[in-house]
Each structure stands twice: as structure tokens, then as C-alpha cells.
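WARN no homologs supplied; continuing
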Amino acid sequence: MNTVSSAQSPLTGQGPGSLDLSKNLAMVFGTPVAVHQWPDSEAVNAELGTLVLAREAGEGGVQHSNVGGWHSKSDFFSWDADCVRTVRERVVRMVMEMTRVTMAEQIGDRKLDFGLKGWANVNRDRSYNLVHNHPNHVWSGTYYVATGDPDTDDRFNGRLELLDPRNGVGLFGIGGYSTGARCLVDPLPGAMVVFPSWLNHQVHPFHGTGGRISIAFNVQIQEVSDPARV
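OK structure emitted
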């Protein structure tokens, strides 16, 4: 096998015959993921935390990907509270922008209808979520309300991990090469993460006191027919 020393490698970008592909390189089959920290969320999160914990105390949860913890019914956006309406507005704004920037063609005068489904989660000590995805939707995401009080410095403690969809991507590599790196999201209060619903993800076990509270959501998108354009 032929080898190339570092002095000869085009990775240095130096010397005669070196290539500059910065204007000719495309990251094909990329996966759009966005995390946005919503400002001024303390009051909203305090109201959400009180509301979610009251619901947890008053009604049984459901079982989906969660192991332990509490998972509400998927009717969160119908709860009658200002904090719920604030989260709904934030979800709509974020998924509209995600849709706009990722569409192959400009939306223009096309009309899109966004259907939302949401639920609250409370993960307590040793609770976690199995690897899963959300079929029959376009976008999925999570809004973080409270992190609880972790009692370990484990970097995976209570964090969301988005799993690389490319089979075999981690079978080989070189130091400093980003392909195959793990994607972990910190559950910081006020942060919202949005990703394609087909993307497998999991929540690592939470170790600590208190509750790790989040609002998860799915988004369906349909184009609305305009009779005037038919």
C-alpha cells in the first residue's frame, strides 16, 4: 500500500499542486439539527414545572420509549395555560424556520399546514428513554424545562443523544476527523432542539435528585391546496 507523509499530504494545503476544494465541496446526505436557547424563559419554565408536576401527581402516565419516569398523554398543547401557549408559539416559529431553510425550493406563496402533538416528560433518578424515532411526522423535538440536580459528572447523565444514521461510519477514522462523532444535547432550561422525525435518538439515564422535565413534540406538515391555483 502506498503511503503519503504529512509533508506531501494535500491536507496541509501547501506546496505546488495542492487543492482548494472549499468552493467545490458538498456535505451530501447531511442531517439538519438545530438547537436554540430561548431567552427570558425563567418565568415560563417555573409555570411549566408547576403545571407538569401537578399533572404527574393527578394522572397516570403512558408507556412508550420511557423506562421509568412519567410520560403524559399526547395532549400537551390542549392544556389551558399561558405557558403552554408560549411553548406552542416557540415550536411553530422554530419548525417553520427549519422547514424554510431546508426546502429544496423556496416556499414562495405555497401554504403549509403544521399539525402539532406534544407531551410532557419527567425523568427521575435512573429513568431514561430507549432508542426510538417518531414515524409519520416530519420534525420532532424537545423543549427543556428543568434539568434536576445531577449527582455525577458522567458526561452522558440525562443527555439526549442523536444517533448517526449512516451505517458503518464509525468503523474507521483518524484523530481530529469529525465524521462519526457522537451528537449529545445538554438539557439546558429554555433550550429547544429540532431534528427530523426519522432520526433515531435516546435519552441517557438521569442520576440525581429532582426531576428532569421536558416537553417533547412531533410535527406533521401538509401543503394546503389553493382552489385559485387549480
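Confidence is low (pLDDT under 50) at residues 3-11.
OK
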